[in-house]
Design brief:
Layout: H1 2-19, E1 25-26, E2 29-35, H2 43-56, E3 60-66, H3 76-83, E4 91-94, H4 111-118, E5 122-123, E6 125-134, E7 137-146, E8 154-162, E9 204-208, E10 229-237, E11 250-258, E12 265-271, E13 279-280, E14 282-284, E15 289-293, E16 298-307, E17 313-319, E18 331-334, E19 338-341, E20 346-354, E21 361-370, E22 377-378, E23 380-389, E24 394-398, H5 405-412, H6 415-418, E25 421-425, H7 428-434, E26 441-445, H8 453-456, H9 458-469, E27 473-477, H10 481-485, H11 496-505, E28 508-509, E29 517-518, E30 530-534, E31 544-547, E32 561-562, E33 566-567, E34 573-579, E35 590-596, E36 601-605, H12 615-630, E37 647-649, E38 656-663, E39 670-675, E40 681-686, E41 693-700, E42 707-715, E43 718-726
Parallel strand pairs: 2-3, 13-22, 15-23, 24-25, 24-26, 26-27, 27-36
Antiparallel strand pairs: 1-5, 2-4, 6-7, 7-10, 8-9, 8-11, 11-12, 14-16, 16-20, 17-19, 17-21, 18-20, 21-23, 28-33, 29-32, 30-31, 30-34, 34-35, 35-36, 37-38, 38-41, 39-40, 39-42, 42-43
Length: 728
Amino acid sequence: MNKMYRFLMLALMAALLSTSLFAKVQKRMLMEDHTGAWCGWCVLGNQAMEDMLVQYGENFIPVALHNGDKLVSGSHQATLASKFSVTGYPSGTLNRSLVYGNTIPFHPSYWPQVCSQHAADQTIADVDVTYSITGTQLTAEVTCTLTEDYAGQLAFNLFVMADDLTGTGTGWDQVNYLTGRAGYESHPYYTLPNPVTGFYHMNVMIDMLGGTLGANALFPASPAKAGVKYTKTFTKDLSAYPLIQNIKKVYVIGLVQETGSASTILNAKMAGKTMPRPKAGLTATEDGVYLDGALNTKITKTITFQNTSKYDVVADFSINAAKTTTPADWKNSIDVTNASVKAGGSKVITLTTEIGSTVAYGDVTVKAVVQDGTDYDGLASGSTIGILSTGAEGVVFHFDDGAIKPILDVFDKLPTVKAKMAVIPFNSNTVAAYGSYDFKVIIVPETFSSRGTIINYAELLSYLASQRDNGKAILMTSMIDMFFAAGNYSSLAPNAATTAFFKTKWGISGPVQGNPYTIGNGTTGVLTPVPVVGVTGEMATGLSFNINEYNSATHPYYTFWADQITIVNPNLATAIMKYNDAALPEANKIAAVKIVTTKNKNIYMGFTFDLIANITSRTTLMANMLVWLTGASDVEEFDNLNTAKLTVYPNPVINRSTVSFNLTNDATASDVYLVDLNGNRVMDIATSAFAAGTNYVTVDASKLSSGKYFVVTNINNRLSQTPLVITK
């Protein structure tokens, strides 16, 4: 019996030794982030990488795979994006394996959740890596010992990585859509500019020496056996990589991966990376709060900042001037500027705002900066309180601060409009706070960075539908919503309420086609300027300008698409502008329409104001649209954008020209001035209450440089313009 027992035990041990020699080991989490400096949402991935490095240490391995910028290295990212169906940026893959059962790429907002689920995963591959750099010569050794036999073919790989890569201009500067964006007030990128110039890119993949999928460094044995230590040595002269800026910032990742269709990473090890220190910051419990108040009154709001870290901290508090947008005659103050906050404790700050006599909406951001400690780095955070004064007659509900600036520039040139207009970020809280206000006109400028928001934002469309039914005027811009409205993209096909809003109530949709009207290449970054012209007899008659004239220094706004509008119901909608593009069928050229319902007036524009680089054209278009929406009784009042019938003689001019213009009624407010091609006001010609009939003023061009200018009249907020050429 004892002999039989010993025989059975020996047989069992032999069987175990043939398949599993040791217990499984910790599986590190290698996250490959498909990103780009051009991608404004990719800062979510940048921060998530750093946060999880702090949380998991060397068990988390971040790899930034760049697309379409100056940090692209070879074809590795493109190969992986194709293999794993990466169609949106940012997207991440965890060990190139499935998460949620059937998904490989997933958005950074899910990274913390997925990593928490896989932080304790184990694997059969115990991987290590060592390396040295002599001069520019890299030598690295990756080793792997399996705890079980592996039946298939395995491969080694070595990622050459670098931190702190930086440069200037497009392709280096990190676009940041979180700048001042409601809902992200506590995010570190909220207080950073858009774009972040001189940005330091971290975790950048320089090369994969085993090939993208490891095909260049296969295991010498297949199947690979448990207990055998497999080794692969990689060498590379780093001078082959112009992207590397500092050899001291180079580090490596050694890994073992499956080959073939799976390509799963069994395990990886990072060596040589400088790890970030733990972070400590304060979190505001009152954030994204929206208040209102009467002119020339004082309001207060308490803000509680909590310390959820394990460290006692010292924090500095201030009004963040860069993120506070109240008028000059509004005064903001806080009662505490410095305080110690225990771990788990909190500090209450009282914000006082004295609303002046200027009608406006303003954001006030209280900034909390935790000072660096011995064991941690301090973080900056903030609390933003929105305040709307009484007296606003119009509102711009916008989705991002970056592309709202060209509209703000227009308002600066229309002071009487600016004095009655509130500019408010749109979200659930602002609708709850200000949705019942009696605005006469509502402007919703969806831009390239916020594309698709309107047609997918049920709460916004519900609000606009109610305002339409209450007789309020609406001006909406987008560059892709009518493409979706036509049902061209099934996953974003509108629901019944959205269809009714556009097709039934406004009488518009888009052409049925495979792709939207493309005026740029998202891969190469090449943009196509497109001419837009006014439809004869409508409010934009005589207007002609280009959209998509990008300039990184003076006008950094662009789009890859423009919206084409199909008129479903001509009793409601009428074309007012068209794309002057000979390649388009006539039916697909409509760029903007006016919509007149039994209850209100509306305008839908298939491009956005920020795409009009010429500020004179931008201002003229906005001014005349607002006059029609809020004042003009019918469109015949806008038979020409030169409604004042401006003439200039002589033109071209050397020294002096005479400007004539006609008024149908006495003007209560009028202004005549000269602007250059950048919209800068270079000369005040005349300001007076001109009478009905023909009026004459003189332009003294003797002190101006040669070039093209525009004479502009602003008569009761209606603008007219005509070109003037000065030659010397």
